[in-house]
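Q: Given only this backbone (261 positions), what sequence would you predict?
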């Protein structure tokens, strides 16, 4: 039976995930605490793995209950701890020293800082999909692939690429339920320059995107809507959550059901 196998939020955009057993849906459709915080440079642009390779050697841990953010560098451990609201100036000073440029941490409790502003809901993928992709790039394992693609909701009890059922032709959406919460699948997610990089070192595989696109095309399941693939460097599904679902809670173990197009 399709079910929600895991929930991951990324409290600081581009940094490490936090695994949850349940999460509340915000009015924007985002998951509470996901991409809540983001780092910005003096031009007001994101400091992320796409633009700054030092992000890959930063280590972080965030506790949603205490709002304490721990930071460090690979190989040295988490050497600093800050309350994200009460010690923002100290965080900014630490980040500036780490990156060698002025960096500011900002928060958005209403929407967060989603990658896709048109589809701010959680991204969805299946555990079996992650396993299939790991097999394309041995010796990568599921854990490595999971953190490269950074999806929020992972579906268990289904075959690889099951989530390709959650979108249809352009201009339509596929409604599905996780427990009693309704979501609308919109499109297969276009990937960026981050998945080819080792998430812990930043070292990039220059053939990754090419090999990925070839394998994705070869293994595209019959239930996938092929018209949504102007290229095959796409994985996971972007969603929009209907406004009347705000405040509902999604839990690990919830049944997942496709409702209608």
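A: Predicted residues:
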């Amino acid at each position: 039976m399709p079910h929600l196998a895991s929930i991951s939020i990324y409290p600081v955009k581009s940094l490490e995930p936090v695994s949850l057993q349940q999460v509340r849906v915000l009015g924007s459709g985002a998951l509470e605490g996901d991409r809540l915080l983001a780092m910005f440079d003096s031009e007001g642009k994101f400091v992320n793995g796409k633009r700054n390779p030092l992000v890959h050697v930063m280590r972080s841990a965030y506790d949603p209950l205490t709002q304490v953010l721990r930071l460090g560098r690979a190989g040295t451990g988490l050497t600093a701890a800050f309350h994200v609201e009460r010690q923002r100036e100290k965080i900014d000073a630490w980040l500036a020293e780490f990156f060698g440029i002025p960096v500011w941490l900002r928060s958005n409790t209403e929407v967060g800082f989603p990658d896709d502003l048109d589809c701010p809901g959680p991204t969805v993928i299946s555990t079996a999909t992650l396993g299939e992709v790991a097999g394309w790039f041995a010796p990568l394992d599921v854990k490595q692939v999971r953190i490269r693609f950074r999806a929020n909701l992972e579906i268990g009890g289904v075959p690889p690429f099951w989530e390709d059922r959650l979108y249809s032709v352009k201009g339509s959406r596929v409604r599905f339920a996780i427990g009693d919460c309704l979501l609308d699948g919109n499109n297969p997610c276009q990937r960026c320059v981050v998945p080819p990089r080792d998430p812990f070192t930043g070292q990039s595989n220059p053939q990754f995107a090419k090999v990925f696109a070839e394998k994705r095309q070869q293994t595209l399941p019959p239930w996938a809507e092929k018209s949504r693939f102007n290229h095959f460097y796409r994985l996971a599904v972007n969603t929009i959550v209907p406004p009347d679902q705000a405040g509902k809670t999604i839990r690990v173990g919830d049944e997942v059901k496709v409702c209608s197009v």
